[in-house]
Amino acid sequence: AAGVIQSPRHLIKEKRETATLKCYPIPRHDTVYWYQQGPGQDPQFLISFYEKMQSDKGSIPDRFSAQQFSDYHSELNMSSLELGDSALYFCASSYDLYGELFFGEGSRLTVL
Amino acid sequence: SQQGEEDPQALSIQEGENATMNCSYKTSINNLQWYRQNSGRGLVHLILIRSNEREKHSGRLRVTLDTSKKSSSLLITASRAADTASYFCATDGGWAYKYIFGTGTRLKVLA
Fold it and tell me: What is the pLDDT of residue B2?
């Protein structure tokens, strides 16, 4: 069965650079969530989209932006990267309101 | 503030024993979900319990929900070494598009 695809899986950037993470949800899933997980931390909710519209926002820095495109894939753009942005970034999708979330394997961002 | 808090933060047991993890949350919910995460990997959905349910089973998993105490527990029976992972609860806090994860319990099952 198709799963949530995230790319790239690993990314190394310098401070103040920009990074873009991509997420391809499971077909027919209309909701996408982005989470950030630091080492040994719980996943922190960043932002979500439903039917290509932003539906909720969490502790996402102003330096970050995201959108969902017409084909339902989503991109998380991160600018002016800081050392503290080093983390695993997960995307999840769901097909049912209040249903389970299906997670991708994550994108590991390292900021040097 | 953290929506979900879990205890214990770490748990080490022998294979064959039962493992119980608890989760507390602060606001009303529509459902509560439990997820498992192997180190550095994606989260895998285990079980979902709705606010009008009190108990749910799935294989060796048993989840209870007490909405009056705003708490849930996950019981893994007859644990195996392969159950070694971090376990998180997640709550919707009444919103459909914002699941908040608890701090997680790191379970280690010794063979």
Answer: 39
